[in-house]
Specification:
The structure holds two protein chains of two kinds. By secondary structure, chain A is mainly β. Chain A has strands at about 5, 10-15, 20-25, 30-40, 45-50, 55-60, 60-65, 70-75, 85-90, 95, 100, 105, 110-114. The N and C termini of chain A lie far apart (about 40 Å). Chain B is globular, with a radius of gyration of 13 Å. The chains are: A mainly beta, B mainly beta.
Chain lengths: ~110, ~120
Amino acid sequence: GENVEQHPSTLSVQEGDSAVIKCTYSDSASNYFPWYKQELGKRPQLIIDIRSNVGEKKDQRIAVTLNKTAKHFSLHITETQPEDSAVYFCAASRFSGGYNKLIFGAGTRLAVHP
Amino acid sequence: GAVVSQHPSRVICKSGTSVKIECRSLDFQATTMFWYRQFPKQSLMLMATSNEGSKATYEQGVEKDKFLINHASLTLSTLTVTSAHPEDSSFYICSAPTGGSNQPQHFGDGTRLSIL
């Protein structure tokens, strides 16, 4: 089955710096890669996703890149702000049996210091 | 606002009690919903896939007789933790794809279960 590895486990940056979180996946058939942000005690919120027919996607300060050959994808946050502090999870899935079954990485705890 | 509603948000009960958690899709139909468990400072672990009108599909290592799932309608899935014990204490959270099975999944607010 699918296995997703995520690095780093913790990341500390100064406000205004960029943050990069990397994930690798094992199932070459995976074709959907979402990123979720989870604040303490709250539900994960989808912040951006990418499908395998696209190499890069950007939404304001957030971008995701995908390298299908190497089976890795990354989240890039530019001009970080203290409110970006949270745990970020990557996930991988493929559409099979009528649905996407998400397998999550271990998470990255991002701290943005003023 | 939330498109997936989960209830209750918090449960504290004695060992041996059975606890039912509801997950509802708001303003959309979900033939498939997913149940996850999240221990403190850990990732979301998929427990099972809830299928409307048929049996749930459980992940390896998840006891189907312990975690009963019922998906009786296109907007409601329930997870019942039977005869709960302290080791079942965790954050249980559901998700559903909005706008169709191949669309992004959105999560409910989760249920924090504490078994004394």
